[in-house]
Every structure is written in C-alpha cells, then in structure tokens.
Amino acid sequence: MGRRRAVQPATRILVLHECGYRCSNPTCRMVLTLDVHHIEYVSEGGGDSQENLLVLCPNCHALHHKGHIPRESLRAWKLLLLALNEAFDRRSVDILLALARFGGVMIWGDGLLACASLVASGFVEVDQMTEIVETGGGFWSPATVTKEERVAKYWMVLSAKGRAFVSAWKKGDQKTAVGALGSPRGA
Predict the structure, then answer these.
(1) Is residue 81 part of a domain?
(2) Adjacency order of strands within the sheet including 150-151
(3) Among the three residues 87, 115, 134, which one is the final residue of a domain in this structure?
C-alpha cells in the first residue's frame, strides 16, 4: 500500500497549468480553491506524476470520493485536457475511436478531406478503392458515365500509431497518448 506525500511544487504547477487553474470538471470550472487529486489512488499504487494528477474543486473532489463522480469521468476529463493542450480536437478523437471499434470505414469523395489531419499525422491509413458512380437514382458502371459523375471511394483504417493512441486514450494513459502524438511536451 502506497504512502501519500506532498506533490512536488513543479508537478503541481504543471497540473494547474494543464487545467487552466480551474476545476477539471468541464461543467464546473471553479477557480477559487483547487485540490490536486490522484486519479489512481496512492493507496492503490498510483504515483505523483502529472499523468496521474487532476485538479478538482473541493466540491467535485468530495463528490468523487462519495461515489457520485466515477473514476472513468476523471480519466475522460484528463484526456479532454490532453486534447485541448495538445491541439487534438474531440472530432478527431471520435473518428479514431470509431475506426478502432469498426476496424475501418469506407468513405466517399471529399469525405477524405474531413480526415486529412489524421492522414497527414500518420494516425490513419487510406487505400483508394475502385470508383463508384451515383447518377440520378442509381449506381452505374464507371465505363458508362462521364468523369464528372464519378466519385472515388476510400477504405480508412487506423495505422500502428493510431492504434497506440487509441489504446492509451481508452486506458487514460496520457503519457503514452502524448507520445503517440509525437509532439514534445513543453515545446
């Protein structure tokens, strides 16, 4: 069983900075008094690293310890802070989580542009498939229509980098998730 000790001042400052000196609960965001909370309790082996710490107001902190705010919510809030601080928007995370769940998705036409940042960052791999055609009310052979009527179809899957990020995200492992992003902390 771990023994609780004071969080180092430098780590406390990093955690406070990460949350903008506000309660990490997105529906609270109290600014006056803040507690540094261990997501994984020290008594359960949790450490004092920034990845395991979250700032809560005394009310949200008490609600968590009374069982009204589950640990899964704390992890989600921590990862929302990761998304905000690492410029990784929620829509991109949702796309990655959907790809992980479905194993891949088929997209058509300019739908690929909506995922361009994920492709460019190496989180998603894309293969162009055969062209499909939709004209007027049905699908036709590409040989029987003009080029303007053709729509490209793509198969999109997570890359190894994308799978590593999703795995870390689901576990609430901020350090590994940030490592998958490839962005240096503090740069």
Answers:
(1) yes
(2) 138-139, 132-135, 150-151
(3) 87
Q: How far apart are CA 54 and CA 56, in angstroms?
A: 6
User: Is residue 78 in a domain?
Assistant: yes
Please count the structural domains in the chain: 2
Q: Tens digit of pLDDT for each residue in 61-100? A: 999 999 999 999 998 888 888 766 665 677 888 888 899 9
Shared domain for 83 and 19, answered yes or no, is: yes
This model's pTM is above 0.85: no
Q: At what angle do helices 174-181 and 160-171 cross, to 10 degrees?
A: 160
Which whole-number Å values give the CA distances from 57 to 32, 35, 40, 62, 84, in the listed order? 8, 6, 18, 9, 20
Question: Using CA atoms, how far apart are residues 94 and 98, in angstroms rounded to an integer?
Answer: 6
Hey, how many other C-beta atoms are within 10 angstroms of the C-beta on 153? Answer: 17
111-162 tens-digit pLDDT: 888 888 888 888 899 987 766 555 555 555 555 656 555 667 889 999 998 9
- Residue 119: closest CA among 144, 142, 96: 96
Q: How far apart are CA 24 and CA 133, in angstroms?
A: 48
Beta bridge partners of 107: 154
Do residues 30 and 45 both lie within one domain? yes
Beta carbons within 8 Å of 120's beta carbon, 6+ residues apart: none
